[in-house]
Every structure is written in C-alpha cells, then in structure tokens.
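Form 7-S
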Amino acid sequence: MNEIIIKTEFIKLQQLLKLVGIISQGSDIKLYIKENKVMVNNVPATERGKKIYHGDIVMVKDIGKFKVIEKQ
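Output:
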C-alpha cells in the first residue's frame, strides 16, 4: 500500500488521482471513475470531488491501494 502525505485536512479524489499519476487532467476523472473501479474505504466512489481524509484508503482496480496520511 502506498502512502500519500497531505498537509491539509482533506484532498479531493480527483486531486489524489492526479497526484499519483493515474489521470493527467481533472476533466478525465468522470470517465475514469465510470470505467474503472475506484473505492474509498471499501465503498464505490462515484463523485470526483469526494473528500478523502487522513486515514482513508483509496483502492484503484488493477493499480493498487493508497492510504492518505497527515504530514507531521
């Protein structure tokens, strides 16, 4: 599982997917979520602007898991 360190209270799903290099533009997220299985804490994600908080785990089918942690 990869750890994603953020300095803020949350990161939006589209920002996280851009940060890890899964998508290149925010506008690609709607189609990506529709065509691929993206889960947040074992719940299917349908909103590109879903807020991901410290401790949340994002799983992207065929790519891997990402845990969001707070920068100390």
